[in-house]
Amino acid sequence: MVIYGKTVCIIGSVEQVHLAARAVDMLASGSKHGSVYKMLEQESIKLLKS
Fold it and tell me: Where does the chain show beta strands of DSSP type E?
């Protein structure tokens, strides 16, 4: 993921892009960084298991 000004670029598999977009949306909506990071960790584990 790259952030430049007001632009966010995400490169990855479909699942990874979906997860990153969800994280960006959460941050833009005011979620705390820790909450977003925890969600990313939990979802990453799920992706690895599938």
Answer: 2-4, 7-9
Task: Quote the tokens at residue 40.
Answer: 């990313």
How does pLDDT run across 5-42, given as a tens digit for each residue? 888 899 999 999 999 999 999 999 999 999 999 999 99
Cα dihedral sign, 35-37-38-39? positive
pTM: 0.80
HSE-up (13 A, CA, CB side) for residue 14: 0
Cα separation, 45 vs 14, whole angstroms: 16
Q: Structural domain boundaries of the chain?
A: 2-49
